[in-house]
Amino acid sequence: MSNLEPEPREAVCGAEGTGGPTFQMLAGREVVLGGPRGMRVTRTLPSRGRRMVGAWCFVDAYGPELAEMRVPPHPHTGLQTVSWLVEGEVLHRDSVGSEQLIKPGQLNLMTSGRGIGHSEESAYGRIHGAQLWVALPGTDRDVAPHFEHHAALPNLTWPDGAEVTVIMGELAGLTSPATTYTPLVAAEIILTSSLSLPLHPAFEYALLALSGAAEIEGGSLTPGPLLYLGSGHDELSIRALEPARLLLLGGEPFQEEIVMWWNFVGRSHEDIVTFRENWEAGHGFGEVTDFDGPRLHAPALPGTTLRPRGRER
């Protein structure tokens, strides 16, 4: 999915520490994709309070609602896009020749590396899910672009109906087949009562409620904000206040500064300028075929130099 804002905000992330366990609620802001009648999403990363959780640098949640997703061909660099659905179906096309329909419980993972273009679209109907981005480390940010679809992912179920699906990384002894470039985890948690999961104390973690309500660390979480838990946890205890579906995101604190603007992740202002010029010139990103419509043009760059601001604002 693209950042379709006509005046995208600069997001430059640094390598400051996490400060141990915490309970920080990050409010989301509503963004409309594709004009006034487009699909609404709630964006919680990057936020005013925090830029990243591990290598996770972008979190959009959408639905459940009746809507049509239509995101024309657009570019990405230096990141992975992670598509996760609860309801609906979305068709992905990209410039390395992939065409894949994603359904609930399946993973579409696109690694942009040095540059890729892609589009996403759905039929009008109920749609509910999340779009996440992972920043690639400097050693891998120029890898060849590629796409993965994982129709089946490892999961655990409990007698009371609780279920954990490991989307990326490792959790509770289960390892996802999805390719990762830094130590991280993403998992969907469904529960109606209580659940405890082992965590990695060196990871920082955050939780997003996709539906329902849950109690974590004595506080409640409902759809909308992202709950940042910091690092230093060896266990996560969750109690459902009503049937709940949550996304757990975590990873080692990302030890590099990155510049994130529009759909690009780079390391400097000059990187972003080059990415934008190349996309506009039709160079280095390939072509997305079979999409009925024109590709997106990059917004104008801001009048100031894109500069580092650190992991926390």
Automatic annotation (TrEMBL):
Instruction: Determine if Iron is one of this entry's keywords.
Output: yes
Q: Which residues form the Pirin C-terminal domain?
A: 193-283
Name the keywords, alphabetized. Iron, Metal-binding
Occurrences of domain Pirin N-terminal (ranges): 39-134
Region (Disordered) residue spans: 1-20, 294-313
* Short name of one Pfam family: Pirin_C
* Similarity remark: Belongs to the pirin family.
Q: What is this protein called?
A: Pirin
Give the species this sequence originates from. Answer: Acrocarpospora corrugata
